[in-house]
Amino acid sequence: MTKTLRYENINPIPALTWNWLRLNRATLSVDAPEIAGTVSVSGLTDGITYTEDGAQIARTLPAMQGGAGTDADAVIASFSPVPSAIVAGTGKKIAAPVILRFDLADGKSHVSQQVIVAEADSAVTVILDYTSAPDAGGFQAVQTKLWAKERARIHLVKVNLLGSRYTQLDDTAALCEDGATIDVTQIELGGAKTYAGVGATLAGYKSNFKSDTAYHTRAAQLLDMNHAVWHKGGATDTKMAVKGVVADNSVKIYRGTIDFQRGCIGATGDEQEETLLLSPTAINKSIPMILCDEEDVSGTHGATIGRLSADELFYMQSRGISEEEAKRMMSRAKIAAVAHLIPDESIVAEIDSFIDRMATSQSEAEK
To answer: What is the pLDDT of residues 153-165, one digit of tens each?
Structure first.
């Protein structure tokens, strides 16, 4: 049975801009077909507890905000998924990643929630790998909540290799206690429309958040991102880096906010974006923002947007590299710079294969 979804306030920016900029929020409109698809779990070792029914653990979570907003909560809740839970035990530092592989069926929907808890002094890496057939379509909604307790570390990796007709809503909410660290690594390559939000609350003293995102939009893809970090604890630190390529007739929107709230004395934050435009018809919209309600803080942001320069092209062409090959090399380099942070060779190989497939499809389209 198909469910019609329309929500007007996806990926809301924490502080509104002028309406004519059309950056305050995104609209999700999709006809979601019946639920199907599977998730397999690997990498479970001593010190890690995994349960498919993590509803009881989910009820113990403190309040936290996701980047995709309360409308995203409503989308997820409308399907009533049962959250799975991954818990790293106290003092357990798990070297190998836990991998959740999403194998999604063409013409179907898949909705899921995950809860990841790192108990005090523990460390865990969790990878979510979204895959489907190259030309598959459907709808996926994912919500992941992270709770890093005292001095714990969570590394969350999300890899979007969905088929070319998929719509995806992907929400991440994170909370750090004293001395805790959460790292989020995202690779956004697949799908027709992707709405990806990341929200982190640095509640504890000397807690840290770091995100690295790479993307490549092409054809008529839409990638809409909203990253927000709320500094509440003293001496907290944020580092956000986004880099990627916007090609063909695609659209990429990035909202990045660091919010220094009253009481976060000594907090620091930095957000940087690098965008390579490969088409005069591609659309890129970026709004890095710093909000401040505390005096003793330090925040920086920057955005670099440009095309391959004539000097770069001349250098490569003088060495027998065509303009199209040069573009592909530069595109791959931006993705590889983030993909190397993923501690699993098989996932990195999947990303490389997806990029190769994109390049082959592009070459055939240009003939």
So the answer is: 999 999 999 999 9
Contact 100, 127 (CB under 8 A): yes
Question: Could you report the per-residue pLDDT of 67-123, keeping only the tens digit for each?
Answer: 999 999 999 999 999 999 999 999 999 999 999 999 999 999 999 999 999 999 999
Q: Which long-range contacts (CB under 8 A, 24 or more apart) does 333-338 make?
A: 334/214, 334/216, 334/243, 334/244, 334/245, 334/274, 334/276, 335/187, 335/189, 335/214, 335/215, 335/216, 335/244, 337/214, 337/243, 338/185, 338/186, 338/187, 338/212, 338/213, 338/214, 338/241, 338/243
pTM: 0.95
In DSSP notation, 114-179 reads EEEEE-TT-EEEEEEEEE--TT-EEEEEEEEEEEE-TT-EEEEEEEEE--TEEEEEEEEEEEE-TT
State how far the Cα of 208 lies from the Cα of 153, in Å rounded to an integer: 9
